């Protein structure tokens, strides 16, 4: 029986950089989820007769939310829902399934790298038929629907059990429960040289993959340990937990410090990696050698052809604006296009669909390719491993080679988390107003060449995105970027991105914070961060 439930619009159901994220208690309180799901369905023109993919990163409320969404999809006339067993699907696996099965879209339950649990964060993203995050236009349509919503539709009866594989009916809708890992693992086997990887592990190569108690555990166990022969136990924290073990599933040196400690110890494995809550981000660390995500993108762009899936070379590369310019130098050397997009994977979709970019990446540890329409953590790990297998060099050797050839873009991001939202907005507004006056000023050894606010016109569909970050360029290639996060759930998070190019062969192995000291000083001088936020130092430095 279809139930039509009257409801009233809820304010603030506006998707951010990647879906809608709120505190878990907010999402749990009916009809918060129900309203938003109905707005998604309405915003995409209804789901009558459509096929949807559904799954999440397993965080607290995942299972209950899946049941609600299934009942709403059935009541809204969907033909079929393809659900990961136990309600689990990593974001890249969901993207793959949408494409593989020709689905009309998918709902992914995740707040990604934000912590999970009854008092932490929950989120919901909608991906379209190309497997990628909803475009700005679709996101705006969904948001508009949240504001005019009067009712939602829900099936009046329990959703089928999704702990076992197989098909069941909910009203006229088929609920198809699939293995969340199998199709994804097959795709990886087609892209990478699994024989070479097996030979690498058989030769004694040691790996540690930290799944951070989040979604990639089952994927990494199956692929790295079972199919490729990494020693049992190489994948740690491999069971997805509703609260991610109380941790923060963000793969960076701060939150994955246990992995960093292992990789910088005397008997460190050859290769370390970690992934985030929903499996779309990656951290790469060699023995005593952390690889910044921007550098990782550049190395992958340079050497991807060593993996069978990219043997024909790359059509082009793309990076988000705050990501360092290291990949630009590789693209230039290869004579391929390099696109600069706003923050968030949704902006890469048109370039990938149009065949203008093969590899994309963000400084926040997201890297991916045209194999799906999401960033893909485990894919990046496998591409690194494939390159290591083909070259038989260490991560540190590959980085030294790379910097010697291209120079080093020293890079860091300083985050000031949960600062007073008004203070953060005022900082940005005042800096925006000051941009035209900055050129020509000197701060210590740095002279400002130009300053602007980044805006983007999509080269494929012409869509315009304004106000995407404030940029300050210095003579000699240093750069500062300021923007506010669009994924937080409390206050505002100020992100300050710092970069400086170094080509002197004797200066390629400095500590990034030291190498960037003049840029850090300039950021404070230009924006007055301490005075405005009351913070003497960043909460997180990556
Ligand atoms: C952050 C990152 C951005 C990433 C986004 C979603 O956004 O900076 O690069 O695409 O998270 O990633 P923001 O607006 O907080 O800077 V995930 O892994 O949360 O889907
Ligand atoms: Co993520």
Structural account:
It contains 18 helices and 27 strands. With 542 residues, the protein is of the alpha/beta class. The protein has 3 domains: 178 residues, 3-Layer(aba) Sandwich (Alpha-D-Glucose-1,6-Bisphosphate, Chain A, domain 3); 223 residues, Alpha-D-Glucose-1,6-Bisphosphate, Chain A, domain 3 (3-Layer(aba) Sandwich), CATH 3.40.120; 134 residues, TATA-Binding Protein. The strands form 6 sheets. A 7-stranded mixed β-sheet has the order 2-6-5-3-4-9-8, sandwiched between helices. Strands 20-21-24-25-26-19-27 form a 7-stranded antiparallel β-sheet. Strand 22 and strand 23 form a beta hairpin. The chain starts with a strand and ends with a strand. The site of alpha-D-glucose-1-phosphate-6-vanadate (VG1) has 18 residues, from loops.
Features:
Alpha-D-Glucose-1,6-Bisphosphate, Chain A, domain 3; TATA-Binding Protein; 18 helices; 542 residues; binds cobalt (II) ion; 27 strands; seven-stranded mixed β-sheet
Describe the structure in brief.
The chain has 542 residues and is an alpha/beta fold.
SSE blueprint:
Blueprint lengths: L1 E5 L13 E4 H5 L3 H12 L7 E6 L5 H14 L4 E9 L2 H10 L4 E5 L11 E7 L8 H13 L2 E5 L10 E5 L2 E6 L3 H10 L2 H9 L4 E4 L5 H12 L7 E2 L20 H7 L7 E5 L6 E5 L2 E3 L1 H11 L12 E5 L5 H9 L2 E5 L7 H5 L5 E4 L3 E4 L7 H15 L3 H12 L1 E12 L1 H18 L3 E2 L2 E8 L2 E2 L6 E2 L4 E5 L4 E6 L7 E11 L9 H4 L1 H11 L1 H5 L6 E2 L1
Parallel strand pairs: 3-4, 3-5, 4-9, 10-11, 10-12, 15-16, 15-17
Antiparallel strand pairs: 1-7, 2-6, 5-6, 8-9, 12-13, 13-14, 17-18, 19-26, 19-27, 20-21, 21-24, 22-23, 24-25, 25-26
Helix pairs in contact: 2-3, 2-5, 7-13, 10-11
The structure holds alpha-D-glucose-1-phosphate-6-vanadate and cobalt (II) ion.
């Amino acid at each position: 029986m279809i139930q039509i439930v009257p409801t009233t619009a809820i304010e603030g159901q506006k998707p951010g950089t990647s879906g809608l994220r709120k505190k878990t208690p907010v999402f749990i309180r009916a009809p918060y989820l129900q309203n938003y799901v109905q707005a998604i369905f309405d915003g995409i023109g209804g789901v009558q007769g459509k096929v949807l993919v559904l799954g999440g990163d397993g965080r607290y409320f995942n299972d209950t939310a899946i049941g609600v969404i299934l009942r709403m999809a059935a009541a809204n006339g969907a033909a079929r829902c393809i659900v990961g067993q136990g309600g689990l699907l990593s974001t890249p696996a969901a993207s793959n399934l949408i494409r593989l099965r020709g689905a009309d879209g998918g709902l992914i339950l995740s707040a990604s790298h934000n912590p999970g649990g009854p008092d932490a964060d929950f989120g919901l993203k909608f991906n379209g038929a190309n497997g990628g995050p909803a475009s700005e236009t679709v996101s705006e349509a969904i948001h508009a629907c949240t504001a005019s919503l009067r009712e939602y539709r829900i099936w009046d009866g329990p959703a089928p059990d999704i702990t076992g594989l197989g098909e069941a009916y909910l009203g006229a809708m088929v609920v198809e429960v699939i293995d969340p890992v199998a199709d994804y693992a097959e795709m990886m086997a087609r892209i990478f040289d699994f024989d070479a990887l097996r030979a690498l592990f058989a030769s004694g190569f040691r790996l540690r993959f930290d799944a951070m108690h989040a979604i990639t555990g089952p994927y990494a166990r199956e692929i790295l340990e079972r199919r490729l022969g990494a020693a049992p136990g190489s994948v740690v924290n491999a069971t997805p937990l509703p609260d991610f073990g109380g941790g923060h599933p963000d793969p960076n040196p701060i939150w994955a410090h246990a992995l960093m400690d292992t990789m910088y110890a005397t008997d460190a494995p050859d290769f370390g990696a970690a992934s985030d809550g929903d499996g779309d981000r990656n951290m790469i660390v060699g023995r005593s050698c952390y690889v910044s995500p921007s550098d990782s993108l550049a190395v992958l762009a340079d050497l991807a052809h060593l993996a069978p899936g990219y043997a024909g070379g790359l059509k082009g590369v793309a990076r988000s604006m705050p990501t360092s310019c290291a990949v630009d130098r590789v693209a230039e050397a290869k004579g391929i296009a390099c696109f600069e997009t706003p923050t968030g994977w949704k902006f890469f979709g048109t370039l990938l669909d149009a065949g203008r970019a093969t590899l994309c990446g963000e400084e926040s540890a997201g890297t991916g390719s045209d194999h799906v329409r999401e960033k893909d953590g485990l894919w990046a790990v496998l591409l690194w491993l494939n390159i290591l297998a083909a070259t038989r060099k260490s991560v540190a050797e590959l980085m030294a080679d790379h910097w010697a050839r291209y120079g080093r873009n020293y890079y860091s991001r300083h985050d000031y988390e949960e600062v007073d939202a008004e203070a953060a907005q005022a900082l940005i507004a005042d800096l925006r107003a000051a941009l035209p006056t900055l050129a020509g000023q000197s701060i210590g050894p740095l002279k400002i060449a130009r300053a602007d606010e980044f805006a983007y016109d999509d080269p494929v569909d012409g869509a315009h995105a304004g106000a995407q970050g404030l940029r300050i360029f210095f003579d000699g290639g240093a750069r500062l970027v300021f923007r506010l996060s669009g994924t937080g759930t409390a206050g505002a998070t100020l992100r300050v991105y710092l970069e400086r190019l170094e080509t002197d062969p004797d200066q390629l192995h400095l500590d990034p914070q030291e190498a960037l000291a003049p840029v850090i000083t300039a950021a404070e001088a230009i924006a007055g961060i301490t005075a405005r936020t009351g913070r003497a130092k960043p909460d997180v430095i990556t």
